[in-house]
Amino acid sequence: MSRVGKSPIPLPSSVTAELTDHRLTVKGPKGELSRTLHEEMEIVIEDGVITIRRPSESKNHRSLHGLTRSLVANMVTGVSEGYQKVLELYGMGFRVQQQGQRLTMQLGFSHPVIFDLAEGISAAVETFVPTGENDYLSARLTLSGIDKELLGQTAATIRASRKPEPYKGKGFRYQGEQIRRKAGKAAQAAMQQ
Question: Which domains does the chain show, CATH number per domain?
Answer without folding.
Answer: 3-80 (3.90.930.12), 83-174 (3.90.930.12)
